[in-house]
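User: Before I run my own analysis I want an independent prediction to cross-check against. Here's the chain; please return only the structure tokens and, at the end, one sentence I can use as a sanity check.
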Amino acid sequence: MADNIDTASQLSENVRQSSYSVALVNGLVLRVRKSVNHYFGGYYYVNVLINCDVPLETSFFESENEYVEFSERLGNSVLFEMILDKMAVPEHDIYSVQNELIEKFMATTFKYVSSPRFPRAFVRREADKLMKRSRPRV
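Assistant: Structure tokens:
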């Protein structure tokens, strides 16, 4: 748990950096990219993109054949991506809004993404989505 607290503080402390990476205890590396675009007048569109590559592992699948099938369709990894944004932010609030968006991620998603169970669960969910899309409709 202490490792997750250190990681959480790393995510929150990098308020003024536009992009950075944070290693999670489950071996994944979160990439955080913040951007700001002029919206209108003195207002801005604030965007925080958080993502990581989740590598496919044979152990995530029921057989070697299933692993090979999905790695051919999905590649060597699956991208987890979350976009947090807010429109019409006054210039003087940009950094605090970026921090609020990251805090929202920390409160809602961080525990799940940093869990040791996340890589397998996420890859399986993406594989299941792929299977549903490729089934013929009746």
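Sanity check: The radius of gyration is 18 Å.
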